[in-house]
Amino acid sequence: MNEKILLIEDDQEIAEMVVNYLTKEGMDVSHVADGLTASNCLRKEAFELILLDLMLPGMDGIELLKQIRTDSFVPVLILSAKDSELDKALGLGFGADDYIAKPFSLLELSARIKAMLRRVTQYTMKSDKSEAKSHITFHDLVLDMKTLRLYKKGKEIKLTAKELQILKLFMSEPKRAFSKEHIYRMVWKEDFFADENAIQVHISRLREKIEDDPSSPQYIKTVWGIGYRLGDFS
Question: Which segments in the chain show pLDDT lower than 50?
Answer without folding.
Answer: 127-132
